[in-house]
Structure formats: structure tokens, C-alpha cells
Design brief:
Blueprint (H helix, E strand, L loop, with lengths): L2 H9 L1 H33 L6 H50 L4 H13 L2 H28 L1 H10 L2 H36 L1 H6 L3 H54 L4 H43 L35 E8 L9 E8 L4 E5 L6 H9 L6 E6 L2 E2 L12 H8 L15 H5 L2 E4 L10 H6 L7 H10 L3 H5 L18 H13 L6 E5 L7 H14 L4 E5 L3 H4 L4 E6 L2 E7 H4 L1
Parallel strand pairs: 3-8, 3-9, 6-7, 7-8
Antiparallel strand pairs: 1-2, 1-4, 4-5, 9-10
């Protein structure tokens, strides 16, 4: 039994009801076997009149109806559990942020949330009802057999435990080979997605054929793992059927001999022969369902392992304060369209990524004044992007503090178990309301609503240009979208597209140039006029001179009246800054006004 899955099913009211109905229908259908055997044995032995066949037909019809009810309830249980688990997985992946999400291959996560969770069907709709039936029906059959014939009941009592014992022995091996099969499937899905994404690069370097051979080898490894799993499953069925057949023979042979000698009446003999198989059948069915459900169990283990990961790197618990949802402490300059430009202060901040010994940032202290534009420069890997991720809340400092207008940023987390119910309600409502008695609280979503972020490689979705720009402000009107595009110097090329702002882009903006993608990303930031903090990660990297000039001009306008932190290498982008801060090996090594830095 998978405790986490059962806990999830019990925690959802609708799922809990469907699961209870499914198990109850399965158990009642199993118990009706006793009535069916009793009626059939009585009619065949002459103890009941032939009119009892009508009652027997009714019992069979009720069992069929219960089977149908069990199937419907099981289907709704499966749908509810998979939907809930997928929502939780997607929520966890969202909360993990880019830094921790990079530890997982995206193809494996896609396989897990899709094909992996679909493999839960046999577990929820087959194995769980089989377990419920196996826990009740054999006991009821044994009780009736003790009342009918003590000798046969004792033989069944001794031999029944052989089924679960053999099943457990084979099942332990099955679990191991099924986990290997799941890992092979996840590896195949992950590698295949990586190859598809990198196909242009592979073709350019003449490695496409080699990767096709690699995929063939990975697929062959998955095929071999699947065949090993099937061999074990067939072996399990053979073992269980053999054990059950031998046990039934031990019951049937003495019954026949005693019937011939006259020491056992016909009615009792028929009842024993009809009921004895029903003592073994639920256990055999449970064993068979177990093998069919093992892939789903392996996927569930992986899913709950992802859910159990912390959304942030481990850090010492600190007394937490949260900035207010308003304009901060009041010392910030007014940003464009009424946004508040905050003061950013880092105090002895150290950041470590899981699995890495060296700190990405080490003992960094830094103050960025309200409305100041700061350029971060340094070699690749020095820690510049980590500092941006720190301000975005994607990573948490192992030590030190990040203060926004004098209040600690990394107190902006969702309420943990045991905190006041008002905090849970606050998180549930998107942190947009302040409950009485808890003034000035805000969550990470509300903090991120106060900033605009333009990454080095902006992601454009397979949607219209307008929808991609509107990502920064879902409620923006068409006029506001066009105004943002004009401010980002994107209106000219967007208007030239076949359907203008309604043109659907290829995945990752495949039908746009790097400069055009960057300007669409800047338009997103312009579409968020209330943002007081602007974060840019090398927005002019890999651009030609004309595209760079357009992006620099748009960035200069966007940074007016806002606190801006810009990761930059190009002189044109550094010229925008009021101050240049040089970072090397995770430390601030120099800071000077922009003119002096050059």
C-alpha cells in the first residue's frame, strides 16, 4: 500500500467518497459469493427447490451491478487523484524556481506528469479494490467453511498463507525490476526531448545520426527492462496459480473420498468445493494486480519525491518579517506610473547551491539606493545571475539577509504547517488581502508583482505576440499592449508580421530573431508600469549592433524612475547605469560610478 497516495486520496473530499464507494462495492460483490455458493449447492443437492434459481439469478445480477458501480467509482477516483497530483506537481515545480528545477531533466518531468501518472490507473482501480476484497472475503469464506466442514476449513487455513508468502517473495523482485523499467522510460523520454530541442545544433555539427543511434540504444534498454518485468510478472502468475491449484487439490481429494465413504453429505461437499476456490482467488487477483500496478507505484514514488523537495535551499530559520503590499517604507522614489522604487540592501549574504561545495555568492554586502541604476559586471559564473535570482526569490541565502526597504525579503514565503489560519487564507487568496491583526503581510507572488524581469534568454510561448507581451499584465488592453511594444521599439517589426499582434509565434519564438525576442521581453516589462524594481540579465547578449541599439534605448526609457539592477557586458548597456559593481568568484571586488568604472 502506498501511504502517500492513500493520504492524498483521503485528503480530497470528492476522491475520498468515490474511493470508499469503489472499495465498498468490491467487498460487497465478494461477500455475495457466499450467498451464490450456498444457493447453488443447495439447488444441486436438492436441499433447496428449483425456485431458488430465481434468487440465485438475482444474486448474480446484484454482483454484476456492484461490479459496474465499482468500475464507475474507480474511474472517478483515478481521475481525481491524478488531477490533484498533477496540480500539486505543477505547483511544486513552479515554487522550486529555476535554480532548483535545473537539477531535474525537463524530459523526465514531462514523462512523470504525463505517462508516469497515467500508470496509476491499475493501482487505484485494480490493486486497491483487490486488497480490500483480499482482506475480507477469505476470512468470511473460512468462517463459513468452519461451519460446514472442520477438516476442509483447517486445510484451507493452513494453505491460504502460501499465496501471500509466495506473492511477497516474487513481489520484492518485481518492485526492483519495475523501478529499473521506469528509470529506463524516464531516461528515454528525457534524452529524446533533449535531442529534439537540440536538433538544429546537432545537424549543424553533423551529430544527428549519432544521436539517433543513442536513442536506439536507450530505447533498446527500455525494451529489455520491459521484457524483464513481463517475465517476472508471468513467473509470479505461474507461482500463484500453482500454489492455489495444489492447495485446492488438498481440499478436493479428501472431500471426494469422504463423500464416497458417506462421512460427508452432498450439500456440504458441494458447498466446500464451491467456496474453497473463493478463499484463494482474491489473493491471486491481488498478486496479479500488484504486478500491473508496480509501474504506477514507481511513478508515484518519483512524484512524491519531487513534492517532498524543499522549494528553497535549506537555511537557518529566522524571525520573519514581510514588507507591506504598499509603497514600502516611503523612502523610495516614485517610479513610472506610480510604482515605488525600493531600496535593496544585502547584508553578508552567502548563497550555496545543492551539490556544490563552492558558494555562488559569499559574504556579499551591497546597498542599492531607491531609483539607482546599477550594472553588475564580471566573468561568466562570477555570481551575477545568482544575485538576480536572489532578488526574484528563486534562491534563498544560506546566511545573511536581503532587505527591501529595510524589511527582510526572504520572509516572503507561504505559511508552513502550524501557522495561523489567517496566513493560510492569505496564501490561498493570492496574498492580496490583509486579514485583521496581521497588517503588512505579503507573499512572494505579491513581491514579484512589484518588479519586472528580462532574462538573458526570454521564453516566448506558442501564442500570439499580444498574449506573449500581456504575460506581464494579463489584464492589459490591446491599446496598452501596443503602447508597451512601441516603448520597447518592437511595434515596427510586430506590425510587419502576417497578422500583426495576433500572429501566433512558434515555440520559444522560433520565427523571430534574437533581437526581436528580446524586444518582446522588454515590452512585457513595459506592460507592467507599476513595477518599481527592474532586473535585467544581459539583455543585449548575442545581438547585432542595430538590435542592441534598440534594446539599449528601450532599456534606458524603462529604467527611468525605477531601481534597476542590470547584468551587463557591453559598454552601451553599462552606460545606462549610475554605478558599476564588479563581481568575481562570488564576491563584490569593486564598486564605482559608471564614468569612473570605464
Amino acid at each position: 500500500m502506498h501511504k502517500d497516495l492513500l493520504r492524498l486520496a483521503r485528503g480530497e473530499r470528492a476522491v475520498r467518497g468515490h474511493l470508499a464507494l469503489c472499495l465498498a462495492a468490491a467487498v460487497l460483490a465478494g461477500l455475495l459469493v457466499l450467498a451464490q455458493a450456498e444457493l447453488l449447492a443447495g439447488v444441486l443437492s436438492g436441499r433447496f427447490a428449483t425456485s431458488a434459481l430465481g434468487l440465485l439469478a438475482l444474486v448474480v445480477a446484484v454482483r454484476a451491478a456492484l461490479g459496474l458501480l465499482q468500475g464507475v467509482a474507480a474511474g472517478r477516483t483515478v481521475a481525481g487523484v491524478k488531477t490533484t497530483l498533477r496540480h500539486r506537481l505543477l505547483g511544486r515545480l513552479r515554487d522550486m524556481g529555476p535554480a532548483r528545477l535545473a537539477a531535474h531533466r525537463s524530459g523526465e518531468l514531462v514523462t512523470l506528469t504525463g505517462r508516469g501518472l497515467d500508470a496509476l490507473d491499475p493501482y487505484l482501480s485494480g490493486y486497491l479494490p483487490a486488497v480490500a476484497v483480499a482482506g475480507v472475503v477469505p476470512v468470511a469464506v473460512l468462517v463459513r467453511l468452519f461451519a460446514a466442514d472442520l477438516t476442509s476449513a483447517l486445510i484451507v487455513l493452513v494453505t491460504v498463507p502460501l499465496i501471500p508468502i509466495f506473492g511477497a517473495l516474487v513481489g520484492m523482485h518485481t518492485k526492483a525490476v519495475t523501478e529499473r523499467q521506469w528509470r529506463a522510460l524516464a531516461r528515454l523520454g528525457g534524452h529524446f526531448l533533449d535531442v529534439v530541442r537540440g536538433l538544429p545544433t546537432l545537424r549543424a555539427f553533423g551529430r544527428a545520426r549519432y544521436q539517433a543511434e543513442v536513442i536506439a540504444r536507450v530505447a533498446d534498454a527500455h525494451r529489455a527492462a520491459t521484457m524483464r518485468t513481463l517475465r517476472v510478472a508471468f513467473l509470479s502468475s505461474l507461482v500463484l496459480e500453482l500454489a492455489a491449484s495444489l492447495s485446492l487439490a488438498l481440499v478436493a481429494v479428501p472431500v471426494g473420498l469422504r463423500l464416497l465413504s458417506g462421512s460427508l453429505d452432498l450439500s456440504a461437499a458441494l458447498l466446500v468445493l464451491l467456496l474453497a476456490p473463493e478463499a484463494y482467488l482474491p489473493l491471486r487477483v491481488m498478486g496479479n494486480k500488484f504486478h500491473a500496478a508496480m509501474e504506477g507505484v514507481a511513478a508515484a514514488d518519483e512524484a512524491f519525491a519531487v513534492l517532498d523537495e524543499r522549494a528553497d535551499p535549506p537555511a537557518e530559520e529566522r524571525a520573519e518579517q514581510r514588507p507591506a503590499t504598499g509603497a514600502g517604507s516611503g523612502n523610495g522614489a516614485d517610479g513610472a506610473d506610480g510604482g515605488a522604487a525600493p531600496e535593496i540592501r544585502l547584508e553578508n549574504v552567502t548563497v550555496r547551491y545543492p551539490g556544490r561545495e563552492d558558494a555562488a555568492l559569499e559574504d556579499v554586502s551591497l546597498v542599492i539606493a531607491p531609483g539607482e541604476r546599477v550594472a553588475l559586471v564580471g566573468e561568466s559564473g562570477a555570481g551575477k545571475s545568482t544575485l538576480l535570482h536572489l532578488l526574484l526569490g528563486f534562491v534563498e541565502p544560506a546566511s545573511g539577509r536581503v532587505l527591501v526597504d529595510g524589511v527582510e525579503l526572504h520572509g516572503l514565503r507561504e505559511p508552513r504547517t502550524g501557522e495561523p489560519a489567517e496566513l493560510a487564507e492569505l496564501a490561498e487568496n493570492g496574498n492580496r488581502a490583509e486579514p485583521a491583526g496581521l497588517p503588512g503581510l505579503m507573499g512572494l507572488d505579491a513581491w514579484r508583482a512589484r518588479l519586472a524581469f528580462v532574462p538573458q534568454r526570454p521564453h516566448l510561448f506558442a501564442a500570439s505576440v499580444a498574449d506573449n507581451i500581456r504575460l506581464g499584465a494579463p489584464g492589459a488592453t490591446d491599446a496598452e499592449v501596443r503602447a508597451a511594444a512601441r516603448a520597447a521599439h518592437a511595434d515596427e517589426f510586430v506590425s510587419a508580421l502576417p497578422e500583426g499582434y495576433g500572429t501566433v509565434l512558434g515555440e520559444r519564438g522560433a520565427n523571430l530573431s534574437a533581437g526581436q525576442r528580446q524586444r518582446v521581453a522588454l515590452a512585457r516589462a513595459f506592460c507592467r508600469p507599476s513595477a518599481g524594481l527592474l532586473l535585467l540579465d544581459e539583455p543585449t547578449a548575442r545581438l547585432d549592433g542595430r538590435s542592441e541599439a534598440a534594446v539599449v534605448a528601450a532599456t534606458r526609457e524603462l529604467a527611468e524612475g525605477r531601481t534597476a539592477v542590470i547584468v551587463a557586458h557591453r559598454p552601451a548597456m553599462i552606460d545606462i547605469a549610475d554605478r558599476v559593481i564588479r563581481i568575481a568568484d562570488g564576491r563584490v571586488v569593486a564598486a564605482a560610478p559608471a564614468g569612473e568604472a570605464r
